[in-house]
Amino acid sequence: MIHVLLAALCSVLVSVLLKLARRFDIDVGQAVAWNYVATGALTLLVLQPSLQPLRQADAPWLTLAALGLLLPTIFLALAASVHHAGIVRSDAAQRLSLLIPLLAAFTLFGEALAPLKLAGCALGLLALAGMVWRDGRDAGGNGVARWGWPLAVFAGFGLIDVLFKRVAGGGLPLGSALLAVFALALLVDFALQLFRRVRFTMRSALGGLLLGAVNFANILFYLRAHRALPDSPSLVFASMNLGVVALGAVAGVALFRERLSRINAAGLLLALTAIALLALG
């Protein structure tokens, strides 16, 4: 279980680094671009994926291209969500995004609707509503940002999960898929920065490389957790998601003094319950 804990810590640390970026005068757009330099290089060095599957005629390049476009876009949305809505709401929204592939499996692919999964989906949607709830103090544009960005994170990461499942279903090895997606995401994000006409800085590059190292560590430890517990995928799934939501709440409240209303706190508890039900289902 040490790998699950390390994966959850790294996932929350990504949000913490995004939260601290502006404080250290790091341009988030540049940092996300350099993040893919690090993740791509580490994927090559550590996972050593084969390039041969990517040369096959049936390689799912359309899906990989969609992922290459979505990943940097949603990463920037996550950064905006962390900035405006806080780590607690953003990490909960990211983890609740697992509802989207589950709902897609039920409605589009004919998967049997287990009672516990149905209950988990219902509670998850209630949890999302509770987490993004804003009171009268959040009126105006800032209030829209506080619930709009977490919803964008929820929808974006859910769609990314669906696309990765399509890639896996096509038989493309995970390492090869990750390498292709990170390379495409790197090109997309650097193109965005050139369009912004930003002045690249060493501070943002170093911050982005650190972000990428932590991001890759999150992926690596999660994969190793599944390898260490091959007969307990639901345990890894539940522990990872519950750990991220819980640790994100601790980090947000303890380190950054994020304030949650009673409805937000209830949403957080519902999120933990929903994830547990989905794992049991």
UniProtKB/TrEMBL annotation:
GO terms for cellular component: membrane. Keywords: Membrane, Transmembrane, Transmembrane helix. InterPro entries: EamA_dom, EmrE-like. The chain crosses the membrane at residues 59-80, 92-110, 170-192, 204-223, 235-256, 263-280. The keyword Cell division does not apply. The keyword Transmembrane helix applies. Residues 3-132 form the EamA domain. Coiled coil: none annotated. This is EamA/RhaT family transporter. It comes from Thermomonas fusca. The lineage of its organism: Bacteria, Pseudomonadati, Pseudomonadota, Gammaproteobacteria, Lysobacterales.
